[in-house]
Design a protein that fits this description.
The chain is an alpha/beta fold. 44% of the residues lie in helices and 14% in strands. The chain has two domains: 241 residues, Aldolase class I (TIM Barrel); 83 residues, Non-ribosomal Peptide Synthetase Peptidyl Carrier Protein, Chain A, CATH 1.10.1200. The protein binds flavin mononucleotide.
Length: 342
């Protein structure tokens, strides 16, 4: 159960068992590069419309940013038409993706009303048709990221996992919440264990890993082959060092110091501005600033203060002043304390 041990998804070798989840609006190249610094073995783009891809839509293509430091990279596509998804997978193969994933978990209305995302969980026959078509369309490693089912009364991830295996899918990613749960409640890890007992392809466990020990517990409890982390790394790429330590039975590394935190924010901001330009980059970065400063003393007033700042230099000055004030404060500390964020 060592994160440092390599694992394989089809023909793809991963250096460890730590995977960054696809997160719409978040897992762009800068975010992926930041998390790579902490050792992530595989990253994913956010979900990309298969329809948009085959039409070569500019906005869709924008999600496809490749970088040699961000390999291997999985591209996640969503759609409901087998032929369209197969064509999109072909395009991904030609463009140089390392892996293709099919989204069967997105519960957002705009997506499910087209029969895509988590709505597919209601239609195992369509799933089989999609996976057969996509399998024919690409020789790349192929994964499926699924929910437990559509509703608690119709949990069918075991059936879907088996369909995926039979169609030649190389691994299944299991987020054991039903679609109607959204992101609330808790992920039922016992379902990951059940899927693991059902198929012989690798099973990647996902849901509610918030600290290193959670990942170790998930692997112990479910026997999953790798862990995927989403919300746990928002403003907290250090979680991957913690997971690595926990999986290898080492002591948790100490939380980042204030100086390390500030440096990381600057680095992430620089990458974001380089990718999106100053105006859009600053706007897009606000959510990350919120996550990076959550729990720090005075964090909420700092966030209010910088809410309207549109100048990079001014933002960096204010950021530095905020961290300087924290380091002068005997209670400022480096530990993130959610209680003090008032
Ligand atoms: C803001 C946000 C965006 C997400 N976008 C995607 C997506 O594009 N594709 C996908 O398969 N899952 C998406 N998810 C689900 C996550 O990948 C993950 O399955 C879920 O958050 C549970 O894992 P976690 O508890 O580690 O966050 C998203 C979740 C959130 C919170």
């Amino acid at each position: 159960m060592r994160s440092g041990q390599p694992m394989k998804i089809g023909t793809l070798s991963l250096k460890n068992k730590m995977i960054l989840a696809p997160l719409a609006g978040i897992t762009n190249l800068p975010f992926r590069l930041i998390n790579r610094t902490f050792g992530v073995g595989l990253t994913f783009t956010e979900m990309i419309s298969a329809n948009g891809l085959i039409r070569g839509m500019k906005k869709t293509m924008h999600y496809l940013e490749f970088h040699s430091d961000d390999r291997p990279l999985g591209v996640q596509i969503f759609g409901s038409d087998p032929a369209v998804l197969a064509e999109a997978a072909k395009i991904m193969t030609d463009l140089g993706a390392d892996l293709v994933d099919i989204n069967m978990g997105c519960p957002v209305k705009k997506v499910v009303k087209t029969g895509a995302g988590a709505a597919l969980m209601k239609d195992p026959q369509r799933i089989a048709a999609i996976l057969k078509a996509v399998r024919k369309g690409t020789c790349l490693p192929l994964t499926v990221k699924m929910r437990a089912g559509w509703k608690p009364q119709s949990i069918n991830m075991l059936e879907v996992a088996k369909i995926a295996e039979d169609a030649g899918v190389d691994a299944v990613i299991v987020h054991p919440r039903t679609a109607d749960q959204g992101f609330g409640g808790t992920a039922d890890w016992s379902l990951i264990e059940q899927v693991k007992g059902q198929v012989s392809i690798p099973v990647i466990g996902n849901g509610d890993i918030k600290k290193g020990e959670d990942a170790a517990r998930m692997m112990r409890m479910t026997g999953c082959d790798a862990v995927m982390v989403g919300r746990g790394c928002l403003g907290n790429p250090w979680i991957f060092h913690q997971i690595d330590a926990c999986l290898q039975g080492r002591i948790d590394p100490p939380p980042p110091s204030l100086a390390q935190r500030e440096r990381m924010i600057r680095r992430h901001l620089t990458l974001e501005l380089a990718a999106a330009g100053d105006r859009l980059g600053l706007k897009a970065f606000r959510k990350h600033l919120l996550w990076y400063t959550k729990g720090l003393k005075g964090g909420s007033s700092f966030r209010q203060m910088i809410g309207t700042v549109e100048d990079k230099t001014l933002l960096l000055d204010k950021l530095h002043a905020f961290f300087a004030s924290l380091s002068l404060d005997p209670e400022g500390g480096g530990d993130v304390d959610h209680e003090s964020d008032k």
